[in-house]
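Suppose you are handed a protein chain with no further information: no name, no annotation, nothing but its sequence. What can you learn? This example shows the usual starting point.
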Amino acid sequence: MNLLSIGASYRTADVAALERLVIPDSALPGLLQKLVDQPYVGEAVVVSTCNRVEVYAAVSGFHGGLGDICNVLAEHSGIPASELASHLYVHYGEAAVRHSFRVSSGLDSMVVGEAQILGQLRDSYHAATEVDSVGRLLHELMQQTLRVGKRAHSETGIDRAGQSVVTAALDVAADHLGVDLTGRSALVIGAGAMGALSVATLTRTGVGPLRITNRSMDRADRLAEAYGAVAVPFEELEQALSEVDIVVSATASIEPVLTRERLTAALAARDGAEHPLIVLDLAVPRDVAPDAADLPGLVVVDIDGLAASRRALPAAAETAAVEQIVASEVDNFLGWLRGAEIAPTVAALRTRAEDVVSAEMRKLISRRPDFTEEQRADVSRTLHRVVQQLLHSPTVRVRQLAAEPGGDQYAALLRELFDLDVPLATHANAVPEIGGKA
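A reasonable first move is to predict its three-dimensional structure. Written in structure tokens, the prediction is:
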């Protein structure tokens, strides 16, 4: 098995494409099961956020795995496979490991260095474990991916320039308003993970007074209480829209929450306002209806707009430090892979040796039926000890050599020298083979 990562992000797809690709939490278990039911896919983890949808998989073949995953994504999104291909990036083998580590470190994020992706990766991994779509290879990859991300954030200053997508969105809002946002009133729509992050960021930057609305009033109440904000019933959304300067919308709704009709009514009530109403649409699918974006007195900033702005880039030295950590950790992970790949070959060699000892013992007993049970046991133990001592140093050494660059050749050499029959890894918990990248 080998690692394959396939995805689309703000780098390769616009919001319209990401909206069709995004995977709701309710659909995730079924999609994961569909992936591992494919002929070439043994394990799968799916990451679906506001600006990326990625599949990490253990596959038994590159082209077969690529085709299987693309077909599942095409069926889910309704985007023809030929069109979907133009939005996807593909990483294989070592490149897939490097991509995973760069993602967790924040190097591939819209706001370079943001730490929110770590929680999203953790949630994706846990979701996959719940439906048993993770085996030995992806378990190790995801564990190390999370560890590398934590290390990058704790050992460098990569996250000082910007904590999240919300930070970059607020910078764009400040540009549109032409003023500092301190003391500006704001409304957050949605009390989920992104909504909570938005409230925390707005509070930290001095925006306020702050209101929160959500379809579930209980969640809005809890979040408002935690940050000293005001919870607004969802039925009063239009009135709240007319009374604030900034709106951050981050719901999980599959339909637009801010329709043209709703926004038109709110803007009419704001008639004569000094500044336009700034709506930061951080949801995927988008919360603002496409036909509402051109309304007079309204400025909408969505994920596409943030991608174009490329705010909060960290210093080159900080990026270089994280890249160095990633490169080192990729080497370590590949060493683990090579060591894991030699294990079944070493086991096959020991099994072959045990089979030879057993066969020779049967021949000896047939020639010397006068041996007592005690004598037979003594001879058998002696033969086994001799074999184990002969194999000990070579097998320890070959494991060490296999962990070094190019070490995968040692497994092939052992199989050839001793004519070992080692089955190819084809199931979820199988030991991986080392491959290249595409």
